[in-house]
Amino acid sequence: MGKRYYWLKLKDDFFNDKRIKKLRKVAGGDTYTIIYLKLMLATLDSDGIYEYEGIEEYLADEIALTLDEDADNVQITLNYLMQSGLMVELDENNYELPMVKESIGAETSSAKRVRAFRERQKALQCNTNVTEEKHIGNVEKEIEKEKREDKEIEKKKKKDSKESYGALGNVKLTIDEYNRLVNDYGYDETQKAIEYLDGYIADKGYKSKDNNRAMRRWVFDAVKEQEQKRARINGNIQNKPSFDVESFLAKGD
After folding, report:
1. Rounded distance, CA 88 to CA 98, Å?
2. What is the spatial distance between Cα 184 and Cα 18, in angstroms, rounded to a whole number?
């Protein structure tokens, strides 16, 4: 298939994502957003995976070297990305940017050659001969076939690919499912629900083919009920009369 050339395709609602809005509102947020975008670009040809090579002692210092950015600003950006789910640690050397998978554009070397050829022909205002036209036509057919195949592969990947969430990694959600949960319930509540379901699966052996549906049907309600119980328990403890040691001892005498 030949060499591929990649570019980043941001969705039109990229800056409406609550996590991006929150990042931009903090002091220096625009700088951190630029660092995030540069990191996304740096991982395009690896499907959003950044591999820590150990060139620098710390990950932030190595990424700062790669991006030509200040190490302190990179460290702050990484902390936020990890907390918000925009960056996920796969293991001690590999880190994933989930949003990159949805935003990769690519062009094969053959497609690039055809595009460059057309531009040269237009600039020179030359007429191509029959042989050249036939060659270009064949190349274009191959490109269209390749595009259709790529689209089918991408559709299958988006449909089937699920990421692991939670401390134990028991909760399986697609990136789209996760983003919709965050948009519908908020980042903090979604994280609570993920951790609850993650622990419930580990403790109870609970199995569900669709974790997204389970979270929407009962997990968020279960988390809310759990918090209400804790609040009632804390209230009862605070209202309970204190134990009078002196009075107890006096009665015992």
Report:
1. 8
2. 11
- The pTM (predicted TM-score) of the whole model is 0.42
**Whole-angstrom Cα distance, residue 209 to residue 26?**
39
Q: List the 49-51 sheet strands across, edge first.
A: 49-51, 94-96, 88-91
Bigger pLDDT: 147 or 65? 65
Which DSSP letter does residue 85 get?
T
> What would the pLDDT profile of 66-76 be if each residue is shown by its tens digit?
999 999 999 99
Range of the domain at 138: 108-160
- Alpha-carbon Rg of the chain, whole angstroms? 27
Same domain, yes or no: 76 and 138: no
| pLDDT tens digit sequence for 111-127 | 455 455 566 666 665 55
Region of 121 on the Ramachandran plot (φ > 0 left; ψ -120 to 50 alpha; else beta): alpha
Q: Which residues, listed in sequence order, are joined to residue 50 by a DSSP beta bridge?
A: 95
**Residue 221 · residue 193 · CB < 8 Å:** no
Per the CB < 8 A criterion, the answer to whether 195 and 167 are in contact is yes
Cα(226)–Cα(219) distance, integer angstroms: 10
Q: How many CA atoms lie within 13 A of 176 on its CB side?
A: 9
Cβ–Cβ contacts within 10 Å for residue 144, how many?
11
CATH code for position 61: 1.10.10.10
Max Cα-Cα span within the chain: 118
Tell me the C-alpha distance between 97 and 37, whole Å.
Answer: 10
What are φ and ψ of residue 215, in 5° steps? -65, -45
